Amino acid sequence: MPASIRPSRVSIVDADPELAELLSASEREVARREAVTRALRLAPGPWDSAAAAEPAVHHRGFLLVDGLLTREVEVLGRRCVELLGEGDVLRPWTWDEVGSHVQAEVAWAVLEPARMAVLDAALVQRIAPWPQLGVELFNRGTRRAHTLAVCLAISHHQRVDDRLRLTLWHLAERWGRVTADGIVVPLSLPHQRLADLVGAHRPSVTTAMGELARAGVLSRREDGTWLLHGSPPQELGRHRYAPALGNG
């Protein structure tokens, strides 16, 4: 079923702790009242992003407050998937085709109930007294670009098991939680979704995940999420995964 859209209101300063931390206590009290904007609530399922489009002068995009989305890009029958979560900034209806000879099909889906704050012109004007908020929202786009670059580099590894192992640890950098048994990656990642993430066929992923499980590298929990055992692979030594390892 299509993702339902129900409007509400949200303060981006209240909803996003990283934005709140950029402000002093006195600034925060004022900013939280000025930074209120419309929000969309999306139920799990396909999302028709074009239906959420507004004139460009009024709409800068969305801040994903909570939930989990995917962006699927398909070119000539091969596809890749990007995961988007809390704190990501997106403008889903913008696709620049000028000068491109490659036609891509883009589809969005909601994996977990989501709430997105509307970054419209009125909000941008109201938060102008605190330029650090605008800078941080811009930085979120840069963060997405960096994450996608790392995913692209991982996808160039020849072995499917290496791609899967590196991808799961890369996801753990952001979403991972430390437990007594290992690092939990609390995302819905069935074999087909993992195949789309690493650029492989589902049967190859199923075989590789079985081999990794038998080697004690990972295991699947009862709720379908994944548990990583041991230390991150040496290949990730220059990447920052401290935030994941610091979560309780």
Classify the beta-strand content into a percent band. Answer: 25-35%
- Helix share, percent: 25-40%
Distance between the termini: 35 Å
Order of helices and strands: EHHHEEEEEEHHHEEHHEEH
Multimeric status of the protein = single chain
Based on DSSP secondary structure assignment, what is the total number of beta strands? 11
Quick gist of this model?
This protein has 248 residues and is α+β, with helices and mostly antiparallel strands. The chain is 36% helix and 29% strand. The chain has helices at residues 12-15, 17-20, 25-34, 121-126, 131-155, 160-175, 191-198, 202-214, 242-245; strands spanning 5-11, 36-42, 45-47, 59-75, 78-84, 89-90, 105-120, 177-179, 182-185, 218-220, 226-228.
Write up what this structure looks like.
- This protein has 248 residues and is of the alpha+beta class.
- It has two domains: 5-154, Jelly Rolls; 158-245, Winged helix-like DNA-binding domain superfamily/Winged helix DNA-binding domain (Arc Repressor Mutant, subunit A, Orthogonal Bundle).
- It has helices at residues 12-15, 17-20, 25-34, 121-126, 131-155, 160-175, 191-198, 202-214, 242-245, and strands at residues 5-11, 36-42, 45-47, 59-75, 78-84, 89-90, 105-120, 177-179, 182-185, 218-220, 226-228.
- The strands form two sheets. Strands 1, 2, 3, 4, 5, 6 and 7 form a seven-stranded antiparallel beta sheet that branches.
- A hairpin with a 2-residue loop joins strand 8 and strand 9.
- The relative contact order is 0.13.
